[in-house]
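in:
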């Protein structure tokens, strides 16, 4: 179980799904079901849904996030959305460097770093994603990949600058595949991330850093994952779109059969 220094965070990543009406319905279900959850809850929604979901969640403890941002404040950047626009629409958090952004849209560690700087300047909570591909794991390069992504993504910041940052470990081979890292595999990677951040920013920073696991998190496996000492929550994909499944994940320490 996560350290008392770190409040668990369960964040849903809706990816490119749901109409506005469906987004409102799901956000309302999350808001209505969050009472008694052992940690913080967030939903990261498509850009089109940020403002309408913000109205649903207003006054609730559920945090609202977006799934990406651009690092410039404004300008001739067709198709991009700035940190200021997200804040204006009601967002409080943002996912940065998700493996789908890296793999499909070319986000580099340098881009992650620039986006992180913009998010922090706007006082958003950044959820910075790191993780290895199946080939990299099979070649025994998991730790090297994680180290490179952490050093590149967090480069140039002081520990105090990063106080709002959350790291999400998402093994690429487990995202949307139905395959999940075993609790031991997840713990091993999370511990490495924490030790790397301790080396980069000090033991105190690392002890308070929240590290989420992402990769086919489900109601059926969340309890075993959350029992690991360095897992501080989950970034949930497909099961965040199903209200009852996500509520069970939110209430990860609930007995079987509870919501």
């Amino acid at each position: 179980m996560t350290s008392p220094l770190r409040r668990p965070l369960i964040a849903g990543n809706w990816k490119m799904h749901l109409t506005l009406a469906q987004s409102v319905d799901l956000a309302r279900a999350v808001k209505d079901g969050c009472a008694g959850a052992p940690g913080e809850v967030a939903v990261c929604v498509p850009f089109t849904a940020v403002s309408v979901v913000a109205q649903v969640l207003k006054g609730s403890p559920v945090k609202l996030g977006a799934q990406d941002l651009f690092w410039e404040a404004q300008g001739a950047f067709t198709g991009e959305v700035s940190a200021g626009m997200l804040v204006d629409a009601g967002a409080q958090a943002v996912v940065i460097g998700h493996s789908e952004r890296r793999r499909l849209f070319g986000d580099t560690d340098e881009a992650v770093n620039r986006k992180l700087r913009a998010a922090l300047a706007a006082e958003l909570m950044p959820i910075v994603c790191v993780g290895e591909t199946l080939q990299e794991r099979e070649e025994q390069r998991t730790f090297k990949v994680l180290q490179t992504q952490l050093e590149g993504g967090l480069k140039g910041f002081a520990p105090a600058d990063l106080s709002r940052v959350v790291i999400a470990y998402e093994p690429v081979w487990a995202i949307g595949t139905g395959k999940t890292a075993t609790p031991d595999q997840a713990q091993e990677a999370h511990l490495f991330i924490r030790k790397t951040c301790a080396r980069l920013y000090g033991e105190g920073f690392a002890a308070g850093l929240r590290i989420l696991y992402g990769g086919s998190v489900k109601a059926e496996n969340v309890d075993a994952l959350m029992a690991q000492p360095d897992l501080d929550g989950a970034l949930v994909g497909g099961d965040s779109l199903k209200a009852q499944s996500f509520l069970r994940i939110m209430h990860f320490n609930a007995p079987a059969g509870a919501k």
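note: The CA atoms of residues 169 and 253 lie 21 Å apart.
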